[in-house]
Every structure is written in structure tokens, then in C-alpha cells.
Amino acid sequence: MAYNITLEEAEKDVVETFSMYEEWLDKYEYLIDLGKNLEPYPEEKKTDDRLIKGCQSRVWLDYRMEEGRLYFNADSDAIITKGIISLLIGIYSGRTPQEIAGSDFSFIEKIGLKENLSPTRANGLASMIATIKTAAMANC
């Protein structure tokens, strides 16, 4: 996502993009494509302290604070999960900790993502969101 648009605009863009697809199979395909476009994640950062707890598959999340903004990088060993974390990074990376901490992540419900995931993947999504929010709150 471009950092020159507001968080609300970025979330709205995602909702609009998902609404273009009628079938969830197409939405999953879109998520898979997002995952393929994630920045490469260094193998040496695939450590237990960066592993998101509560995910069925392994998801590593790292972040750095730069000029008052949080920048996230992540990877997963599962293609759909990689797409989900890529979606979240696309919206929240480059935002201030205050913006992220204040977000209600309601776009997730608007696109119907949680309802169209298996219960274990939905738990993983909740864990990803919690980890991103925790990183933001720790840097507020």
C-alpha cells in the first residue's frame, strides 16, 4: 500500500478489491498472489521469538521503528497464511504506532475473511492482528 493514503483509505481499498471477486476461490487466489509478493524474509530471522503464537502454520513477524513509523516484514510456511500476513503488512506497515493501535481492523469483517477461514486459520488471523497491535502499543 502507498503510505501517502490514510489508514482508512487503505482499508477501504482492500474492501473494494475483495468486493470485485464474487467467489471465495478467487479471493483466496488474490491472497496467494499477495503472499508471493512479500519481501524476502531472511532465514536468520526465522527464530522462535519472531514466531506468532496461535497460528496453525508458522508465521514469523519482525518490525522496525523508523522515523516514528513501524515497518513490518513477515513470512509463513503456508501459502494462504503468507497471503493473509501480506495483506496486513500492506495496510499497516509504514504507519505510526498510534494509527495501528487505534485501528479496529474492521475491514477483516467487511471482506468476510474470518468467516471464510477454517477455525484454526481464523485463530491465526486473530494472533497476527494481536501481534501487530502489541508491537504498535509497545512503541506508542
Question: How would you sum up this structure, described in words?
Answer:
This protein has 140 residues and is mainly alpha-helical. Helix content is 51%, strand content 11%. It has six helices and two strands. It has a two-stranded antiparallel sheet with strand order 1-2. Strand 1 and strand 2 form a beta hairpin. The model has no long low-confidence stretch (mean pLDDT 94).
SSE layout:
Elements: H1 7-19, H2 24-36, E1 59-66, E2 69-76, H3 79-92, H4 97-102, H5 107-111, H6 119-138
Antiparallel strand pairs: 1-2
Short description:
The protein is mainly α and 140 residues long. The protein contains 6 helices and 2 strands. The longest helix has 20 residues, at 119-138.
Structural descriptors:
about 140 residues; mainly alpha; 6 helices; about 50% helix
Radius of gyration over all CA atoms, rounded: 14 Å
Low-confidence sequence ranges: none
Report strand order across the widest sheet. Answer: 1-2
Shape: globular
In percent terms, what proportion of residues is strand?
Answer: 5-15%
Give the tally of β-strands: 2
Main β sheet profile: 2 strands, antiparallel
